[in-house]
Amino acid sequence: MKKLFILMLCVFFVGCSSEERQPSTAEMQKEYIQNLLPQINYEWWQNFDDPILLCYIVEGLENNPDLRSATLKTEEYKQFVKYTRGGEIPSASVGFEYFASKNIPFPLIKNDVFLLPLDISYEFDVFGKNHNKTKSAEMALEAYKYQVQATYITYISNLATVYFNIVKVQELIDIEEELLDIKSQILDETRMKLKSELATEIDVNKALQEYKTVQNDLEDLKKSLTQLNSQFFFMLGRTSLSSDRVGRIDFDGRDMYEFSNWQDISSDVIFNRPDILAVEKQLKKSEIDIKVARTEFLPTFKISGQLIWNNFLSGGFFSTGNTIRSLLAGVSQNLFTGGRLSANLEISKIHFEQLFEEYRKVALNAVKEINDALYILKSDKTIMDRNFENYALEKENFKEYESRNESELLSHIDLLKLKQLLLKYRAEIVKSSVQLAIDNIGLYKATTGIIKGDKNEK
Fold first, then answer.
1. Which of 34, 194, 283, 327 is 20 to 30 A removed from 165 (C-alpha atoms)?
2. What is the rounded distance in angstroms from the CA atom of residue 395 to the CA atom of residue 283?
């Protein structure tokens, strides 16, 4: 019996001192990302037919410091739920004490005494106070999960917006370089005409001014591209150099960014937004906190027991004569706490009212964001269609001008000027097409990834 008890005691100590293996940060991050991808409607991003963008999204989810911190914060909430749940089960503790004395007049009592106390206590959750505390912690965890989901969706939207701005600026740089080459040719031919007295110094100066203006515009675009690259790498959690460039897919016009089925949006989308669901969980948590505050006024029922093994007397450490047993059961009731319990209840009620107003504000903001995103998307799509029509018309005009140039009815300088006009229309197409992509992302963000879209459904 003694050996069995000692073995059980050792198992108890080992169980208290050892900890269950916790997954590493990398393992938690990977698992969390795999669980998060369906929640952020990862498949929707495939509508862009841009595998480079998809790779950047996954990289950002894995490496962005803010997102990694949010993942760890979620794990912290989970551990707090476990911590709170511990209040619902009995607690046990064991200790070891030594008592030394000399010249004790009782011959049966030893001078060197060892004590091994085992204390067990439990609070009967008659009114559900401890259980409600656990439910409150669980609601806090669920609310934070929705907050993290909204954070991830916002991050991905911002990351993709920067990416498409990089696509736009790079395309504009290519156009501007073509335009600069045209301006250079015009300047050279104007100088040649000046030698033949077919042009004036004023014509040369104007051509030179236009050439330098395009040079400045090109320099501004390159500066913007460098800044966008740095911002993009920062969002990815990378350290970039000034020479680094973001990889991108080739620009392919409106077919890349025009989705067809954004028009049908159910009202359920609004009430399934993570920010609204987060506030709903917070409201439920607040209701539970009010229940907990009320139960603080009620009595508390506790039971505690103690076993103390010692070697005061002869007969063995775990003998019956050397074992002290005690059992205590009781009830306690707060009589006066200086108004703290009443104040705590009122605070819980006021907090609930505040959350209700927050819920109203979040719902109104959701409706506003979706309506604004829909209007902007519709308006910019109209602008893009007109830009494509203008570009098509200008291409037809340019073909006619080219035929006139071949018939020597139009000078080469005039043809170059018409070509630069065609480039300007092409630049407008780039701007409006990329803007439509950003508008789609804006609606995705407003609906927080819930809305669907398939460019093949036309």
1. 34
2. 60
What CA–CA distance (Å, rounded) separates 367 from 123? Answer: 48
CA 282/CA 115 separation, integer angstroms: 49
Amino acid at 41: N
Question: What tokens appear for 361 in the block?
Answer: 């504000």
pLDDT tens track for 364-388: 999 999 889 889 988 998 999 899 9
Instruction: Quote the pTM value.
Output: 0.79
E strand or H helix that includes residue 323: strand 323-332
Cβ burial 307-323 (10 Å sphere, 16+ → b, else e): bbbbbbeeeeebeeebe
pLDDT digits 0-9 by tens, 259-286 = 545 556 777 788 888 999 999 999 999 9
| Residues found in the chain | 458
Query: Is 180:110 a contact under the CB 8 Å cutoff?
Result: no
Alpha carbon distance 141, 144 (integer Å): 5
H helix or E strand, kind and range, residue 431 = helix 412-446
Q: What is the DSSP string of 206-242?
A: HHHHHHHHHHHHHHHHHHHHHHHHHHHHHHHT----T
Exposure of 77 by Cβ count < 10 A (0-12 exposed, 13-18 middle, 19+ buried)? middle
Rounded distance between C-alpha atoms, residue 336 and residue 333, angstroms: 9
